[in-house]
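Researcher: Go.
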Amino acid sequence: MLARDQRTPFSDWWWTVDKLLLVAIAALMLAGVILSLAASPPVATRIGLDPFHFFNRHVMFLVPSLLVLIGVSFMTPRQIRRTALVVLAVSIGLIVLTLLVGPEVKGARRWITLLGVNIQASESAKPAFVVVAAWLFAESTKRPEMPATSMALVLLLTLVSLLVMEPDFGQTMLILTVWGALFFIAGMRMIWVLGLAGAAGAGLFGAYLLVPHVAGRIKRFMNPASGDTFQVDTAMEAFWNGGWFGLGPGEGIAKRSLPDSHTDFVFAVAAEEFGIILCLMLVALFAFIVIRTLTRAYTTEDMFARFAASGLAILFGVQATINMAVNLQLIPAKGMTLPFISYGGSSFVSLAYGVGMMLALTRQRPRTEIESQEGASSLRAYA
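Model: Structure:
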């Protein structure tokens, strides 16, 4: 048992980290392992792989993800700012490289292979972008003369432009939503928030007019008879088949024909085999993580920690909401993973990085430490 008077890095972390939040994240990861075992074997068998190929890789990605999550949660706010700036710069560079030399799959360039590892750089860019944007907004509240808000807008336009070029409109809308929420939390005038929302709506309408892929998904959502809706229809059938308590582990039918049952539609597999009760428990876990982080964020007087933790919580919650809403046919289909539940290496590690920063930013720190961090939070901190 660790004593409170012990002064080691681990004891300092243990007595300041939010243990309830840590337990909820661990429960979500455990649920992901169980659901990967339930959903992935039929997909692997269908494409000629070992039945446990995706499950084994899911567990394999879990190990580095845990190391990243715990390691990042030890960081101070200053270290988080510096690391996020580096991660964002590297991610933007990899996105540019992907656009230049990445393979085209279904009309999009989103992946690049480096040293035998498939990397989706947009995944690591998301949490790093949120932290850097939060730092800029925090600076704008303390130094009105500094053009931090303009810098945050330029950063947003740069990342969004690259994502649109891939194209990846799901990630684009996610980034815009979180940036707009941060803009509002930072105390910006409502007229600017409404203006940005209008610009985002105009951009979506433009994508509908100019990009056949986007138009097709929206048309199929509005009028299912206008195209192939096999995956979303099968997902809805899974919810009906499962009922409240499910058909039982391994007894699901939808996963035998759903191409993305281990990624985009794992929530439907959970409903069919374990029932709506389990799905509601997953929703409760996601909601607890988001609300707990927001609550802890607003108890700190460090504006950067408050904005960054809030932005990361919103990013985590909105991504989960999009995935579950697609499964329930509430919004048009998007390629968005369910955090820590869906299969995906880049997504898993990037989520662990984001959640690790949430844990770090919501740790209980003495007032003297917060003041020293605030005093160092300037552009010179990156020098």
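Model: The chain has one domain: 14-382.
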